[in-house]
Specification:
The protein has eleven helices and 18 strands. By secondary structure, the chain is α+β, with helices and mostly antiparallel strands. The strands form four sheets. Strands 1-3-4-2-5 form a five-stranded antiparallel sheet. A five-stranded antiparallel sheet has the order 15-16-14-18-17, covered by helices on one side. Strands 7-8-6-9 form a four-stranded antiparallel sheet, covered by helices on one side. Helix 2 runs antiparallel to helix 4.
Length: about 450
């Protein structure tokens, strides 16, 4: 049973995001001592000691709220592990769990150091680095490019070494960059943002992840379920979803259809998703194609998307022209083969896309070696930023022959590949080391041989 100090807390503890600290201290530490120790990092809006509801004694857990995220992050970096009073244990300092995150975040958390920004399409990576280096040392910069043309999409990422540097960049950079913390590639169920945002982009892996849920080709019968005569076709679509999809996931999904010019996830005052997003294409064909392909599509599995046309205020004359083009598109659907797709010029069939997206030419698929085969070589693989699914790894590593099995270490970003033939393992390592598969970079190395120690349980992978 818990209670906090008697002072009233602000209405929104997470405004701005990541401005509240969770501090673990000795029970003898007082509110005044905490305030004095942390005040040098910025404007403190409140300090609360968690107390037992019955005894009113401190439980050794406190919250410190700053006016700015950069102040809270700097305090976390500087105070974590420090001793406040002689004879007490070192304190632990985290960014407190918020409505949009499911855990406390520490100074090593990668999610706090990478920002997502909108930039001019003429920007190079060097321009990006020069623009944002004033806020701190940059680990790397990435431009998001069109996979076909190689041209910049006007979106990018900047990764800093410290959370406080990323927070400073978000707070102080030109507002036209629309800077926010980048959501992790594997993040599916939460959304965190510093602003309502305009057109936002997805990561390489977000787009590639769509291939794990291929969009199946509808048959002719599925089109007869729609009454096209009663529909108002526009270039704008409204997406409704029960699952908390992120801005980047929605962008990546609808960007599979060329021509998208706008994508915005609707958020409430706390930055949480309302379950709706507005998407607009620069041509009617793309909008109709996206509506037909994505309405009813399950992403993630079990969550059926609802996509409908949205009235974007187009003029009556423009609406008549739109209806005329629509009639031609629908006619092509009815008169084509049952398995045909609406394919405006330049469109590639989504269903024919490979589930493996990589920057290296892979050999054809080969059968797995029998599960009881003797292991002649093991490869150790490190994944960044997160492991690939087992079926994708099996698909990739089996192409070199004699693969016995794939094993991922639970809770870690590493795995092992067991081969029945050393030459096949060596070839896989030579081809795949340092390569990117579905947005994930892999370091492929020879695994250390199992230690011959009798007191340890033998490895099973």
């Amino acid at each position: 049973m818990e209670d906090s100090s008697s002072k009233q807390m602000p209405e929104n503890l997470d405004d701005p995001p990541n401005s509240r600290l969770f501090v673990v201290t000795s029970r003898c530490i007082t509110e005044d001592e905490l305030r004095e120790s942390f005040s040098k990092f910025g404007d403190i809006q409140g300090v609360w000691l968690v107390k037992d509801k019955q005894t009113k004694e401190p439980k050794g857990v406190s919250y410190v709220k700053f006016a700015k995220s950069s102040q809270a992050c700097l305090a976390m970096e500087e105070m974590h592990g420090k001793v406040l009073l002689e004879g007490t244990k070192p304190i632990k300092v985290f960014i407190a769990q918020s409505r949009s995150s499911t855990r406390h975040r520490d100074v090593e958390d990668e999610e706090l150091t990478r920002i997502f920004i909108m930039i001019p399409k003429t920007f190079t990576e060097e321009d990006l680095k020069n623009t944002f280096r004033e806020y701190g040392d940059i680990e790397y910069c990435v431009l998001i490019r069109n996979k076909v043309t190689g041209e910049s999409k006007g979106l990018g990422y900047v990764r800093y070494y410290k959370p406080s540097q990323a927070a400073l960049a978000i707070e102080n950079c030109d507002k036209s960059y629309r800077a926010i913390l980048a959501e992790p590639r594997s993040k599916n169920n939460s959304s965190e943002d510093y602003s309502a945002g305009g057109t936002r982009g997805g990561e390489y892996s977000s787009a590639d992840s769509m291939n794990q849920y291929p969009i199946t080709t509808p048959d002719q019968g599925s089109y007869s379920m729609m009454d096209y005569r009663q529909s108002d076709f526009t270039r704008s679509l409204m997406l409704s979803t029960r699952a908390a999809l992120t801005q980047e996931q929605i962008f990546a999904l609808f960007d599979l259809i060329p021509g998208m010019e706008y994508c915005e996830l609707h958020r409430d005052s706390y930055g949480m998703s309302k379950g709706h997003a507005l998407v607009r294409y620069n041509n009617l064909g793309s909008a109709v194609y996206a509506k037909e392909k994505l309405n009813g599509f399950e992403y993630p599995p079990g969550n059926r998307l609802q996509v409908s046309f949205y009235d974007d205020g187009e003029s009556p004359a423009g609406r008549m022209a739109t209806q005329f083009v629509t009639a031609q598109i629908i006619s092509s659907v009815w008169n084509g083969a049952s398995s045909s797709l609406i394919k405006p010029s330049g469109f590639a069939s989504v269903s024919s896309m490979s589930r493996i997206q990589t920057d290296v030419n892979l050999p054809p698929l080969k059968k797995l070696a029998p599960s009881d085969s003797k292991t002649k070589e093991r490869l150790f693989v490190v994944f960044h930023p997160s492991p690939l699914p087992l079926d994708v790894l099996e698909d990739v590593f089996c192409r070199f022959g004699s693969l016995i099995e794939v094993h991922l270490v639970p809770g870690r970003k590493v795995g092992y590949m067991k081969y029945a033939d050393k030459q096949c393992a060596d070839e896989a390592m030579a081809v795949l080391h340092g390569r990117i598969v579905n947005g994930v970079k892999m370091k492929v190395m020879l695994a250390d041989p199992p230690r011959e120690e009798s007191h340890k349980r033998p490895r099973t992978y």
